[in-house]
Amino acid sequence: MALYCELENIITESDVEQKFIYPFLKAETPIGLGLKDSEILTKHILRKKLIDKGQKQKYYFPDYLVAIRGIPTLILEAKAPNELLANGYSEARLYAQEVNASFPHKINACQYIIASNGCETWMGYVDQAEPVLRLIHSDFNIENKLFCELVEHCSHEALLNLANRYYVDLRGNARFNSPVSQLGGKRVQNEEMVENSFGRTLVFENRSIFDPETEQDRTVIVKNAYIPSPKREQHIEPIYKEIKRFDLPSRKNSTALSTETPVELVDKLSEKILNNQEAYSLMLLIGNVGSGKTTFTRYFRYAFLEEKYPELAARCEWIFINMNLAPVSNNEIYNWLKKQIIDSIKETHNDLDFEDFGVIKRVFRREISRFDKGLGSLLCGSDVERNRELYKILNEAIRNVDSYLEALLFFIKENYAKIPIVVLDNCDKRNKGEQLLMFEVAQWLRAQYKCIVILPMRDATYDTYKSEPPLDTVVRDLVFRIDPPDLLRVLQARLDYITRITEQSSNTYILENGMRVAVKRSELIEYFKYIIVAIRKDRWVANLFYRLADKNTRNGIQIFEDFCKSGHMKEKDILAMRVLGDDAQIPAYRFENVLLRKNRRFYNGDESNFVNLFASDYNDDFPDPFVRADILNWLYQVQALSGPTGDKGLFQVSELARSLQVYGHSLAVIYRELAYLARKNLVLCENSAMPIEEGDLVKITIPGALHLQMLRNVSYLSACAEDTLFKNTEVMTRISNRLKFHESDSKLVVALNARDLVNYLIEYRKEYLTNSDELVSEKAIISSVDLNDSLHAVEQWIQADENLKKTISEIDYFTVDMDVDACVVSKNSGGVVCTIADKDVKGFISSLEPKYSFPRDVYSKIKPGDILKCKVMEFDFTHRSFQLKYLN
């Protein structure tokens, strides 16, 4: 039997391509070459090249080109079964030679040629006119010697080793280091600032308001600091009506009847309850993670239902289950959920002792009644025997979670006339498969135990799969979209509530300069309200907060907490607001610095609100600082296009990987960094479970798009410079020295570090052994990130500040080891202040330190106006002057 298809089924050239060559490329070794979709470029996207000479000259592209890390390694040409292979093989060789000509000298990238018409298959080298292997269709067998040789030459492993070898050679013995790594060990690199005492106190004393965890905490928030919205308010009435539809008859609304057979009457009423619960509802709350779905359910219960309809509220049995703790195995989750509901009911009715036999009899009233009517009636004359048999039945019922839960739910309906409402909190934090499993569990729970179920679900999952099983069974009228509240209004409301409950006592705080100040608690809260006002006033800063939070209120509050506690936010800045009030302003760069570093002295992309898009791994054969930015850029460029499901911006990983590896990125690194970006919420992946697979769908998020915009932000670029691996030791050392001796938020340090980083990256990218323009047609290619835009942004930032521009131009002009004439201006205590080269540029030289090589006798003789021959050592950022070494 043929490996891929029978020879008689290969009729056209298209059959050769689709039924024979492509399966051969994709099949895992030893059956095929084991290539990935993203490594196979088809003729639809390949660039035509002019091949051959004279009358034979023509434009041509092959059927397939295998490119790994941007390096073309294998050309494949298909012909119809009735065509000779010689011409196709020759064309493929000529094309490969043209491709190789676009690469640097001595790099023979594309080495292998395969041509096939289905009947015959030839394989050879680019620089040899004749093939080295000739196979017929029947040779494609894993036991055939020729086939094994073909796979050995052109397998994925062989081609990958070929591509990797060039990058290994490029790296050579280079040691990649980050500037911050030169400052000391991990303790120094991870050094924390002393937290802002104002912010620390505010957050610590009110943590249950900023981050409510218990049901009581959430109740306090919805009653005192809830932010309503018209969209959410319109869901209230439909949910209320849906619950009211299942309202059970209560004793309060019933008429007492006299009867000699009360058990039969109770049974009749129980039957009515059973008949009233056939179609209990499943309601979906749709929204992104942190949009307020949990808070909305509490608001509905406490602020709406209990306030406006207290009688109905009293007849609702709310059961909140935290699904964060749920197992995701089909075999475990059902039993786990049943036990959680049982525990919740017992906790709600903690006035009852569920171990007491009297309560057990009430819970299992129906079971006992059935026993007494049935076989138990045979034991009516023997209490001991009856009790023994009844014990067996009840013991089994209690041990069996199915029967126990069913009995408990019926017990609260029958005895309290309550509607069970199960809320499955935190289901939206799970991946697509787990969310769909939660939906199936919710449907089962609703149908099996006759209760209303409220299930939160991530909007991306619902919108993508709402027309497919199992979501296609949802009643659309019971789907409610929860829009997130305005983040700054949420913060304002919680601070207002804190103000209302805060005592008028004072706390003493110690400022940076050691001064002690007494601040009333109410005044302290006002300062943080001014921070919110300052954020609102600055559109760029407000934009940062909103887009970092990405409609996730929990994240937004955490960002604000970290901001308030950061040691980069000085107490003196907060105290200044006491004077300025609503006119208080905080410079944008100060906000950026706090958001970038949180409470760390040095930037760390893994711990920051902003990921370092230029981070790379030292252990890679050639550290790649561009892959993260290129991933986001590709997804940003396609966000307005419809993907395979019809959703805009949602594309398969294989398509993204195919484009990116043409730029020179390793496929393994692409997948690794894509998973990292997904964990950091810069990329939305339908399958948040790892590892990411080539068929998964991904799209850029709001924070992801913000990060691309930050590539033109000088504060961000400067921070990344601290945490990026540099091959160029000179550049790395310059940045490290600035961090060692000067504040990282100094405007001059920020500008120089940002500029050094971008210039280095532009040069480093030139080392990549790829020329995507030579491989792929213009229509098919999405350009990589252009760092010239970043460089232009840095230059604009410098040009906007005259003092900064002047200082940097001086630093650029007076380079290290440059000989200069220094004119003495003044001298004092062994030091000399001078101007350099007839310019208004400050220099300094001292006779007290050996590094200046300035003799004491020369110092004693010189006077203002004298000229000293010197050499530039370095620029002193603290004193804004050049340190000079004396020559004569």
TrEMBL record:
The organism's place on the tree of life at top rank: Bacteria
SMART domains tied to this protein: S1
InterPro entries attached to this UniProt entry: NA-bd_OB-fold, P-loop_NTPase, Restrct_endonuc_type1_HsdR_N, S1_domain
Matching CDD domains: S1_like (cd00164)
SUPFAM superfamilies: Nucleic acid-binding proteins, P-loop containing nucleoside triphosphate hydrolases
Transmembrane segments: none
GO BP: DNA restriction-modification system
Domain S1 motif: 815-887
Molecular-function GO term, any one: ATP binding
Protein name as catalogued: S1 motif domain-containing protein
